[in-house]
Design brief:
With 123 residues, the protein is mainly beta. It contains no helices and 11 strands. The N and C termini lie far apart (40 Å).
Length: 123
């Protein structure tokens, strides 16, 4: 069992940066792949980035490549999403998710979810 709590969202201007955190509780976080998804109003939840337990494999959706970086600190049971050069189209609720085995990019493949944190980017 893994419980996830996101933090770090907020209102920023285009070009600014934010770092989201995902604090996990439970004994299996270090064995779990972690992912970030986002959902804008009226849109489906979409994949942003993921990382395997050992941090050796990452995937990003094309629209954030070169701007966002996913990372994790298994000793602290925490995952991060560093977001640079934010754009208005990045505005969404950002969710952290985790699962054992594999690094899928579909929301339905993830077992554990946080409650989400709002990111709003003004132009």
């Amino acid at each position: 069992q893994v419980q996830l709590v996101e933090s770090g969202g907020g209102l920023v201007q285009a070009g600014d940066s934010l770092r989201l955190s995902c604090a996990a509780s439970g004994r299996t976080f270090s064995l779990s792949s972690v992912a970030w998804f986002r959902q804008a109003p009226g849109k489906e939840r979409e994949f942003v980035a993921n990382m395997n337990p050992s941090s050796t494999t990452t995937h990003y959706t094309d629209s954030v490549k070169g701007r966002f970086t996913i990372s994790r600190d298994n000793a602290r049971n925490t995952a991060y999403l560093q977001m640079n050069n934010l754009k208005p189209e990045d505005t969404a609720v950002y969710y952290c998710a985790a699962r054992l085995q594999g690094v899928p990019t579909t929301p339905g493949a993830y077992t554990y979810w946080g409650q989400g944190t709002q990111v709003t980017v003004s132009s």
